[in-house]
Amino acid sequence: MWQASNDTVQVHTSTTMRATYLHELYQTLSMNYVSIQDRVDALKNLKEVLKPYHSKLTDNMIQLTNREIDLHLRGIKNAHLKGLQNRIRNLFWQFAKKPVFNPEMQLLTKIKKDDTSSPYIMSCSACKCFYILPISSTDEVLGKSVIENYFTKCKKCLDIENESWIRKDLELYKRMLKLLISEEERQPTKSSIIYILQPSDIGYLTDKIWKHQSCISGSKNDLELELTRFCINKNWTPWNCLLVTRQEANVLSKILDTETKYDKKFKMGASQKHAEARRYFATIPRFLPYLAEDFDVF
């Protein structure tokens, strides 16, 4: 309630509106004289409320709700479902009393509060649970300041997400990038593009563009593969390179004439790979200045 000059103004927040909705839903579920259609609609609304949460309590309630809906559809009389309905109502009452699901219940519990700070309500964007903590707290649930994490996930959800991420080993691409930089630094001319490359960029070139195999021999030996220049007289770029073995790279570096080095079919295949690399790296802003230059190899 806000005190105005002449009257009080009632203010609704997201938590009070949620508490009101849960209260009205509980009253509907507690009504004895209600049509079957209204009862089924109330049960469907209950399922929508429980859907974001995954716990033993909510899972049990969803199972009971589905069971009652199924029995209504089969034409079972309401008088034979009193026990099931009472169980659903009692479980929903337990659900509504938990501050995790209904943060307004926190105001009714006896919790020692800091006089210098008021409780702060945070909703996890993943599990939809509520956490009520002091504004200045650095708590175990969120990991850092509550204010900074208002629209983020709780620590439990972050731990689950961290375990489920698929991680890719980039050590191979780090080695290839290091080798590429060392080889280019020995060249009379080199492009600064090699210093903005990331291991993930090398990984895309190797796996997606060149299919993780030498374009000459088809070798897939990780310890032998490296990226070298397609046209020796031009700076190395993702659209002026070949994936070959170290021995093949040494042979190619000794042949300066591109016309005699590659046949027509090979040059056409390499040109398609280079065009594909151009399209991909054009989506990365840091490569745009280099794409603006003319790297036509033919």
TrEMBL record:
This protein's GO CC annotations: acrosomal vesicle; motile cilium
Domain (IQ motif and ubiquitin-like) ranges: 2-116
Gene Ontology biological process terms from the UniProt entry: cilium assembly; flagellated sperm motility
Full protein name: IQ motif and ubiquitin-like domain-containing protein
Organism: Larinioides sclopetarius
